[in-house]
Amino acid sequence: MPLMHVVDATNAESWDKFLSRQPWSPFLQSWKMGTVYEAIGQDAVRIVIEENEQTLGVAFGHIVPARRGKHIAVPYGPVVDASLPKEKQDEVSKSLMSALQDRAKKHGAACVRISPWLEEGTELSMKTVSSPLHLLAEHVWYIGLTGKSEDDILSTMRKNTRNLIRRAEKDGVTVEASTNPNEDIKYFLALHDETRKRHGFTPYTNDFFRAQVREFAGSNQCTVYLARHEGRVIASSIHIHAFGETSYHHGASEQTKVPASYLLQWTAIQDALKRGDTFYNFWGIAPTTTDNDGKVQIPKKHPFAGVTLFKTGFGGELLNLMHCRDIPTSYKYWITYGIESIRKWRRGF
User: Fold this and answer.
1) Are 134 and 344 in contact (CB under 8 A)?
2) How confident is the model at residue 298, as a pLDDT?
3) Which pLDDT does position 113 carry in this prediction?
4) Using CA atoms, how far apart are residues 291 and 297, in angstroms rounded to an integer?
5) Bond before 78 cis per omega within 30 degrees
6) DSSP code, position 1
7) Alpha-carbon distance 10 to 24, whole Å?
8) Which end of the chain, C or N, has fewer beta carbons within 10 A?
């Protein structure tokens, strides 16, 4: 019988083809994301498991030289072939995580930090530690687009959201998809800096944003949207289109009463429908509950409360993912664990 073998991946095309065949294909595990991180000075780790010339699973990670502890971050991975029997999936998953653990030791990293695209409650096949912090969004809000029209989506929106879209149009807001995203990213960066100062969060670097737009826009997998009012760009976003999904990955806006961001989102959803995408992914929201009437209940004191109200207003569904897990590879990890536990408490999560 053929044996599974674990190797460092070298074929970008076969990697992305494997991802495209999965029910959920997070673009953060795409080959291009490794190139993005390499552009900002973080080494990429790409591991693939094969058997009989078939790809069974992949894992992309990047080496994060954080002051609190060097580690390998695995965004929404590893990804295992969903068509495999459960026992085989567990075997592949364990092999991928073991290989990542070996790479972490080789690079002197204190741990491997994985944030798998697996539903909350899923059990992993390898012993891990619950991470003090989240790596990525773990409560994901999305709209399934298959078989839906614009009217279908409008009908499921919160009434206030529909009104704000119309008001933006009446106020003269226009939304365009940039034809020169590598140049027009400057508008997003300026607004993002303003948004960061207003809300006090730790942002990605400008170099990261530029690298991501450059890499994905080069293959028509990225749109930089610009919302203008009275000649000025007052809202902007970076949307990624990969594997049949549109992801609202980054957004920024002026502090203004003009509801430009609502019209921007609606324009992006309309474009996703025209492309024939399967999902529109709003990304992270606060952990929510649903009352007896089916209304989403948002925790008012959560740091994501405001953006949750905004995103859920467009209608959609909630997917709760497994909390971030760590695989320690050094005693230094526990120092990091203590520091991050304090940070979590201070941030209000």
Assistant:
1) no
2) 76
3) 95
4) 7
5) yes
6) -
7) 23
8) N
Identify the pLDDT of residue 117: 96
Q: Which two tokens stand for residue 248?
A: 């609202």
Give the pLDDT score at 1. Answer: 46
Distance, CA of 173 to CA of 138 (rounded, Å):
33
Q: Which homologous superfamily is 5-135+323-347 in?
A: Gcn5-related N-acetyltransferase (GNAT) (3.40.630.30)
Q: Using an 8 Å Cβ cutoff, are 248 and 259 in contact?
A: no
Residue-averaged pLDDT of the chain: 92
3-state secondary structure of 51: strand
Name the residue among 124, 126, 101 with its Cα closest to residue 111: 101
Pick the CATH number of 139-320 from 3.10.20.30, 3.40.630.30, 3.30.70.100, 3.40.640.10: 3.40.630.30
- Cα distance between residue 227 and residue 346, in whole Å: 34
Pairing mode of beta strands 296-297, 222-229:
unpaired
**pLDDT-wise least confident of 22-26, 74-78, 286-290, 332-336:** 286-290
Query: Dihedrals φ, ψ of 193, to 5°?
Result: -65, -40
Cα→Cα distances 83→18, 48, 55, 89, 145, Å: 12, 17, 12, 9, 23
Judging by DSSP bridges, how do beta strands 71-75 and 111-115 pair with one another?
Answer: parallel
Q: In whole angstroms, what separates CA 328 from the centre of its chain?
A: 24
pTM: 0.92
